[in-house]
Amino acid sequence: xxxxxxxxxxxxxxxxxxxxxxxxxxxxxxxxxxxxxxxxxxxxxxxxxxxxxxxxxxxxxxxxxxxxxxxxxxxxxxxxxxxxxxxxxxxxxxxxxxxxxxxxxxxxxxxxxxxxxxxxxxxxxxxxxxxxxxxxxxxxxxxxxxxxxxxxxxxxxxxxxxxxxxxxxxxxxxxxxxxxxxxxxxxxxxxxxxxxxxxxxxxxxxxxxxxxxxx
Amino acid sequence: xxxxxxxxxxxxxxxxxxxxxxxxxxxxxxxxxxxxxxxxxxxxxxxxxxxxxxxxxxxxxxxxxxxxxxxxxxxxxxxxxxxxxxxxxxxxxxxxxxxxxxxxxxxxxxxxxxxxxxxxxxxxxxxxxxxxxxxxxxxxxxxxxxxxxxxxxxxxxxxxxxxxxxxxxxxxxxxxxxxxxxxxxxxxxxxxxxxxxxxxxxxxxxxxxxxxxxx
DNA sequence: TAGATACTGGACGCGACGGTATAGGATCAA
DNA sequence: TTGATCCTATACCGTCGCGTCCAGTATCTA
Lengths: 215, 215
Prior knowledge:
215 residues; mainly alpha; 2 domains; 11 helices; Arc Repressor Mutant, subunit A; DNA-binding; Tetracycline Repressor, domain 2; 68% helix; homodimer
């Protein structure tokens, strides 16, 4: 996404801080309420900006929403593409990916939104796909590759790396995202994220360790 | 919930088939769209009933929604309270519970709704709690008890039965519910439910088998 | 048969919200 | 300074959906 460097137009330029403020306000509101319940007036008020300004930066409510989703997706990519640790032992690599993944998916703002997204995105397949591929999908693909490599080296006894990656992610998450979405649990602390990543990884390794004799 | 047997009132009695039709129509619509997008007119049309009739049976849109949630929750309880199989081997018992659970949670109508519920129920804790306790919560409690029993008998090496139950449910579900909610996958066939229940259970048993030496 | 209630269909009041219009002040480049 | 554009504030329009009212008809009990 190369940011075209403003072809110098006459008149007063747009205030990029307002743009950011609107984006931040919308992100916060969409995280709390589903699409229909977020009013453009509320976004404007939250950003301490006139409603007209909102419409001057984002033509549409849907355009604004898509900008949010895209932004979160990009943020996910940024965080998740860093965690690899080429030559650390397998467990450490998995735990690191798990920590990053949980850090994103359980973040105070993201988690609630992630669970109100489906309802809104069900009739917007392209955007839904993009979001999924930037977050959960990306992690699953990376994990499947790591697992396949470990299997070839004989470090894991795995039938299908994709299934195994799914298992690992599921063990990391547990019921936490659902509970948060239901409003039955508070957002997690970093300490719990670390514990979940380690616990899930250990259980995974125990289930798939080579001497378990599973084809 | 004992159904009070109609204190005989004068005049034409309410048509219970209409009541059921409204409930069914609403269940179908709420499964597809979030709360705000379902119009009472649509419910009436779907039930081939006048809008006024809808309001005569359910005072409110929220009342109707709560009736749906309650109905689904009761249905869950009905299905899930049957699966126990007192003296079958552990694996068979777990697989049976898993099949029932997945059958409910991945059912064509329930799964989509389950993922639009949180957004609607976040400001209705009691109802959210009731739903959770009737479905996922109930299963987790039952599983924790079964797992604790197996651990006492030495059939499993488990630190915390509640965590372990969480792991098992997570392995059963995988990413399927999320994918369906995002509209990126179709509702599942019974065959896949069986496979998931067995696969998840086997992986769980492998991770927690006693000779793995985990405290 | 009479009285009471249920169902239908259409019309409608009302509030909420997305989006537009307008007018006036602010801020930039030339 | 000028002209173009941005931002604000407010008023406004159109629509949509909830919930109600009403007049007419159907159905039940006594």
